[in-house]
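thought: user wants a sequence for this fold. calling inverse folding tool.
action: design(structure=
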């Protein structure tokens, strides 16, 4: 899982003793320490958008509105 400091807080990584960067770090899902930090709201979990979601958003460009006639044009 990926965690970052909660707004307004500075949190140290217990192994490296460095402050967590604002974008967060990857930590083990089964870590008791990080689970406690998450439960205490000292850190928040970062959810990145799924790659499929980003690709699907790009595919929607130029999509036809439902209100438009989708039949063939007879000019």
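)
observation: tool returned 75 residues.
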């Amino acid at each position: 899982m990926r965690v970052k400091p909660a707004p307004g807080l500075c949190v140290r990584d217990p192994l490296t003793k460095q402050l967590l960067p604002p974008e967060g770090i990857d930590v083990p899902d089964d870590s008791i320490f990080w689970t406690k930090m998450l439960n205490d709201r000292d850190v928040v979990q970062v959810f990145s958008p799924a790659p499929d979601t980003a690709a699907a958003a790009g595919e929607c460009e130029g999509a036809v509105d439902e209100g438009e006639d989708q039949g063939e044009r007879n000019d």
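thought: summarizing for user.
answer: Here is the designed sequence. The CA atoms of residues 8 and 42 lie 10 Å apart.
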